[in-house]
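Two quick folds needed for the group meeting slides. Do the first one here.
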Amino acid sequence: MKALKCRECGKEFLPTKIYACEHCFAPLEVIYDMDSIRLYRGFFKNRPRTLWRYHELLPIKDKTKIVDLGAGYTPLHNCDRLARKLGIRKLYIKDDTINPTNSFKDRPATVAVSKALEFGFKNIGCVSTGNLAAATAAHAAKAGMPCYVFIPFDIEMNKVLQAAIYGAKIIAVKGTYDEANRLAAEAIDEYGLAIVNVNIRPYYVEGSKTLIFEICEQLGWRAPDNIIVPMGSGALLCSIWRGLKQFMEIGLINGLETRIIGAQPEGCSPIVKAFKSNLNDIFPIEKPRTIAKSLAIGDPGDGIYALKIIRESNGVAESASDEEILEGIKLLAENEGIFTEPAGGVTMAVLKKLIESGEISRDEEVVCCITGSGFKSSETILEAIPKPIEINPLLKELKNLFEVNDHE
């Protein structure tokens, strides 16, 4: 790690606790000394199957501070059955539901908690729509650090339960995610907190890019043709593009023609609306209304950067209604046996829409990012599934059931 660099004015700073440019207040990103990093494909053969296999491209100097629950190196499923159903040549699902706390947020959390320890923070926390709460709380528990989680009051109870069981103090703010975010930012100096996605953010986001590192490695060291990424703040999409460019610069992949496709729920789709209106600015959504609560960020912090990347990569942005999201969840579960939360339902619904509209050609290859488990959102999804059929313990009633099905 060489420096922190402002994403707007380009000024560089020493990699310390600062998280915004001291001149223009824009966000900072980690700069590595790429000339000094020597990585070859063969190096990875015997490395641990976690995201720390790419440690040279992660911002931790002191390896003794790494807090590792085994996040990363999740499966890239070859989904031939679903590809045939949708009429597309090749479809892969990157399945981050099997991370330690069942979402991709374990990736940035393991990096951020490790960095907070390295900086000497004594208390840690996050602002979350649910998944980051559990991931931060679990890694804080492993590190033995008190954890404070700021959430909007209306997120799914399963996600609250998961963070609470790891011992975190849950602070439910009566307002939106953006209002919870403002409160957490105000608490940083007052209480000496390391809020992973606020004042540790330049380092935190580095963990997410390991998702695309793994995809490239699992595809035989090449970049995918298309990748569909669910967007809340837009940070994951930005990290994926950053990871692709770093692998290209180091020489671990030989070409980069990937189309980056952003997906949002219709009830909270400020980035998609800006893309479709050909605007360069993002207009916040004051009151998000969607069942995809993990994507319900009305004022996306990385929205303008996500927008630029989608355009730079000749990609596209699309949204999905609540009904389409539930259909997307069922489509993936019934054809590939993968149970996603609504954010993954957005990804699948957008894939289906873009194939049907011709935006994605039927002879192309697509990777879809499934970023969290459906069990985290069971309250929401329960309403969309058929209720069990109750029968008496009589063989004739079972026979009647099968006969009914035979005629369907």
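Then this one, please, same format:
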Amino acid sequence: MPVITYVQHDGAEHRVTLPVGVSLMQGAISNNVPGIDADCGGACACATCHVYVDPAWMGRVGERGAMEASMLDFAEGVRETSRLACQIKIADEHDGLIVRLPEAQH
């Protein structure tokens, strides 16, 4: 199973092992990773699971969808590497993925 590293704004790291097929957001919530609010539960209806994907991994997590891009308009501090964690489904090739969390989700 892939090991994912979530890095909080203060630099604290949380390495978790996730089953293939769960979302990056579900993985954070299930493992009590702070900094992912997930107010809508993963329906791509808010932007409270905003993460910054490590640039080295951008090609492997796929592109933002139109709805995701629209929701990111509501997030603060959006960058080229911004994604919503609810829209990234974990696959075997994500083993070693690093994502960073913004200072706040609102």
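Slide caption for protein two: Helices lie at 24-30, 58-61, 66-72.
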